[in-house]
UniProtKB/TrEMBL annotation:
Lineage: Bacteria, Pseudomonadati, Bdellovibrionota, Bdellovibrionia, Bdellovibrionales
Alphabetized InterPro entries for the sequence: Poly_Biosynth_Transport
Membrane topology listed for this record: Multi-pass membrane protein
Keywords: Cell membrane, Membrane, Transmembrane, Transmembrane helix
Compartments, as annotated in UniProt: Cell membrane
Protein's name in the database: Uncharacterized protein
Residue stretches spanning the membrane: 46-63, 106-125, 137-155, 176-194, 200-220, 315-331, 343-360, 381-397, 403-423, 466-488
UniProt main location, coarse: membrane
Gene Ontology cellular-component annotations: plasma membrane
Similarity-based family: Belongs to the polysaccharide synthase family.
Length: 509
């Protein structure tokens, strides 16, 4: 199982194979271009995650919890190398206002060499990792999964190029093709009893298909036209991001380690099933917007940056809060429909994790701000504090059971988010309460929605899970947006205005 989102490029409107020396960068001050980029980015994340979730839901009915737990550990290792050693370099390019081809070349070579080193280290460490976690079945699986690190080295710079040029439409097609083909292979093997091998094959095929289509779709090609100055600048900046990413990795993924170490592979598979649904939810709702927000914030003037920061928070929580609260309330029905009764123990885990995820996802704008303002060392101090708190809390909570593990994660995120907001507001020279003022309408409206649905819970308990969700989901949405219309009508009108920027202009046509 993976928390990643493999993507596939779109081959439509492909340019000539000859690399273009200097591509025309989109202007991030163009609200229409940003809106279209956000739309395709959200569609990219949403469609890909829905497809990946469908693949997971099907394979979960044929593959054991233990195998999913082992795969979760393998992906934990891959994600660790990716976040600490590779992703930080890609982020350093995305955070630049207008990277040159030489800077892209430098970025590619750094990530490629880094991926080879990381894959080699991971491959040679599989027995050590398996012994440490007390599960020898991890070693043979991890031997194959290490290959994913190499595919990251060959694709991450291209992804950054697409993001900077707002070519999210191509990335959407890329996602659907790779996940669809890889998922088909995984499902076929799972149905025929291949167990964990089906999960491994799914990931490898998905990554390889994504790699091939990505290289075919982009007009940029890496070359050896590199200046050492660019290499040094990227490494200098990315070392701070890498440190932050490593600590953030401990913050976000140490729960899987503690679960495996204390509770075993089966409980880890159970925990990760809830976490997988949470991941799909935030990838669909948040990551698409966040990937547009970082370059857009980087292009913002100092005068507009504070307003844009508040705007991104306001628009994100407008949709995030009701969906996450709704999932928490309907977790048992959701698990019953998606995974079946053998996974029903994941329902309380899902309820707690989805609430914790609200804070972690809305907090991305605070992290983006520190990157844009070249304050990665500030983030290092903050995330180090969070990592220490995270390890202490999870150590105390995990031994009491898998649901307590989820509660520990919620406690940690609830404590750290206000501190992150405080840092951002100090940098922007705005009031600490200005952020909460933007979040409050959606949180209050979500609370009203939750109270209404809880009041009628006894009535819906006798319903079939499908019917229960089919009634409560639209009812909750109606209550939520009705409350928002009364409390913060301007937010709704702002979304409508943004939608008009995305839709074709008939008059212009």
């Amino acid at each position: 199982m993976t928390t990643e989102n493999p993507e596939v490029p779109n081959l439509e409107d492909e340019e000539p194979i000859v690399p273009v020396p200097t591509a025309t960068m989109p202007h991030y001050g163009d609200q229409s271009a940003v809106a279209r980029g956000a739309m395709w980015s959200i569609l990219n994340q949403s469609a890909a995650q829905i497809l990946a979730l469908v693949v997971f839901l099907i394979t979960a009915r044929f593959v054991s919890k233990e195998d999913f737990g082992i795969m979760a550990v393998c992906m934990l290792v891959v994600e660790g190398f990716k976040q600490v050693a590779l992703e930080s370099v890609g982020i350093s390019i995305s955070a630049r206002k207008d990277p040159t081809d030489k800077e892209y070349n430098a970025c590619f070579m750094i990530i490629l060499v880094g991926s080879i080193v990381c894959a080699s280290i991971a491959y040679l460490s599989v027995d050590l990792i398996a012994d440490m976690l007390g599960n020898p079945a991890i070693a043979p699986a991890l031997h194959w999964v290490c290959l994913l690190i190499l595919t990251i080295g060959l694709t991450r710079t291209h992804e950054a190029w697409f993001e900077k040029h707002l070519q999210f439409k191509k990335m959407t097609i890329r996602s659907l093709l790779s996940i669809g083909i890889g998922g088909a292979v995984g499902i076929y093997m799972a149905i025929h009893g291949f167990g964990i091998a089906s999960l491994i094959a799914q990931q490898l095929v998905t990554a390889l298909v994504a790699l091939v289509f990505l290289w075919l779709a982009t007009t940029w090609r890496p070359s050896l036209n590199i200046e050492m100055k660019d290499v040094k600048d990227i490494l200098k900046y990315s070392k701070f991001v890498s440190m932050n990413a490593g600590i953030a990795y401990l913050n976000g993924q140490s729960d899987v380690f503690f679960s495996t170490y204390y509770l075993g592979a089966a409980n880890t598979g159970l925990y990760n099933s809830g976490k997988r649904i949470v991941t799909a939810a935030h990838m669909m709702l948040v990551n698409g917007i966040s990937r547009v927000a970082l370059p857009a914030m980087a292009a913002s003037s100092d005068e507009n940056r504070a307003n844009n920061y508040l705007k991104w928070n306001r628009l994100t929580t407008l949709f995030l809060a009701p969906v996450y609260v709704g999932i928490a309330l309907l977790a048992e029905d959701t698990i019953s429909i998606l995974l079946g009764d053998k996974w029903i123990e994941a329902a309380p885990i899902l309820s707690v994790l989805i609430l914790a995820s609200y804070f972690t996802q809305i907090d991305k704008y605070n992290s983006n701000l520190l990157l844009v303002l070249y304050k990665p060392h500030w983030q290092s101090v903050f995330t180090t504090t969070g990592a220490i708190l995270n390890i202490v809390i999870l150590y105390l909570f995990t031994r009491h059971g898998v649901v307590w593990l989820a509660f520990g994660y919620l406690v940690k995120t609830s404590v750290m988010y206000p501190l992150s907001v405080y840092i951002s507001t100090r940098l922007l020279n705005i009031s600490f309460w200005s952020v909460w003022k933007e979040l409050a309408p959606s949180l209050i409206s979500s609370g009203i929605m939750a109270a209404a649905l809880l009041a009628g819970r006894e009535y819906f308990e006798s319903f079939n899970p499908f019917i229960s969700i089919a009634i409560q989901a639209p009812l909750g949405a109606l209550i939520y947006f009705g409350s928002m219309w009364v409390i913060a009508r301007k937010s709704i009108e702002e979304v409508i205005a943004g939608a008009k920027l995305v839709l074709p202009n008939k008059k212009a046509a």
